[in-house]
Write the structure tokens for this entry.
Amino acid sequence: MMRVLPVNLTTILVELPGLEETLALLTSLQSQPVDGIKEMIPAARTLLVHFDPESVSAKALATEFHKRDLSAISPRSDCQIEIPVRYDGVDLDNIAKLTGHGVEEIIRRHKESQFTVAFCGFAPGFSYLTGGDPALFVPRHQTPRTRIPAGSVALAGAFSGIYPQSTPGGWQLIGSTSVKMWDTNRSPSALLQPGYQVKFVEVDDLEAAEADATLLIEEGATAGSGPNDTEEEKLALSETVGNTNPHFKVLTAPMPALFQDLGRPGQANQGVSASGVLDRSAFRAANRTVGNPAGTGCLELTLGGFSFESTSQAVIGCTGAPCPITIQDAKGQTTQITETHRPIALEPGDVVTFGHPRTGMRTYVAVRGGFEINPILGSVSTDTLAAVGPSPVVAGSRLILKNAQLGLTSVSIYEAPAFTLPAPGDVVILDVVLGPRTDWFTKEGLETLTQQCWKVTAESSRAGVRLSGNVSIERKDDKAELPSEGTVTGAIQVPHNGQPVLFLADHPLTGGYPVIGAVADYHLDLTGQLPVNTMVQFRAITPWSEIQPQHNQLHAS
């Protein structure tokens, strides 16, 4: 049975009986696309669909989905990748207890299985492999490990997978490999693409086996085209530029600054979320103040304290959280900048120091012409969770300025904050679209979400705002497990402890805890400006209900 569930104002979640039906619907929509669908993220038994509400409605999509043939078998690629693996996983004995098979039998069954890449998710280059022996279907750990080494080969449910980087995780570890699952110098960057065939080959010496596997891996990796095709995209920030080039020399950065732009949407098939700037209105305003194109990359500062010296003439714009700015020129004279959202002219030798903002969380610094920073997967954004993008900017970094010819492009002197920035202790109301898993919670749990004020904790990051409340959100069945499914920026995920996490731009592509609602798109910028100890109150703007098909016909494009 198919269910279509609301996620936010521009996203819906299609729940299907299982993986085969999910991949069948995905294949159908890829071969016969529907106008207005922007991106789809498959998971074990769901398909997350991002759409343009000006082109198509959620009801119209639900109608079309119900008409699609879900019996089709997803096509498989002719590409087969052999992964050398050493079966040294710390969970082998536990898997033996769970399955009733000995360790040698577990290894035999795993390496004799023919796996297929079903979809990518969780992290860049993390591929969910199906086709394993049903005798090896084992549950995830109840409590995830805080760190799983890169290259770990693991089992969970009906899937096998390989962790592309060191990350928290709850899968059962069966072995390890030294083959890179994710490499931005490769095209495509994710080694294992949907449809690829995968075999695990047992080895004793991973380093020797890796050399033998390189040719096959390179053939598979270069067989298709990808977004990371040019040499200039292979490095995020050049380390070979001489000191004579115009640049900002970073003097202090108590919290690393990050390069950000509007993100890298459209990379979900490689397990990469969009990421990008947290306060889009402030980002665009910063670029307007210096006359840049709207999407030009800029610096995102967290809680100020940042300083740099300019080696040339430049024009900067500062928006977002209002930091007091001090400029000391080469002669030692000091100027205080009290108004932000205005262009600021710099001379060689000027030292610019940002104080700490009293309201808001993040400040955006644009420079006329932009920074000389090469994109990775089409974006200069730093995704802190996935470790994709330029390295964080720290003390000693040199930020090279582009020699961009902007001509007579005008600057803006009429910018202002798009909303009132909150201070610690302020109560901020965020509009919420209920779904997709609101029905996992009791009536009292939903009332707790919307009637209680939630405090922003110090454990918050660009991945998500961790909230704390006196009363936890109550589930109907606290022992129920949700297969991982696609998530969105603004999703309010509720783990077993009932204390919600509000996902920001660097959230994982998929998650395994139920999402009770999602912040409306028009309040997302505000979520990126919530300082610690801000109080949040959620206001449901729609009742929760499944999205029913409509009677009008919708045709594929």
Residues 220-236 have pLDDT under 50 and may be disordered.
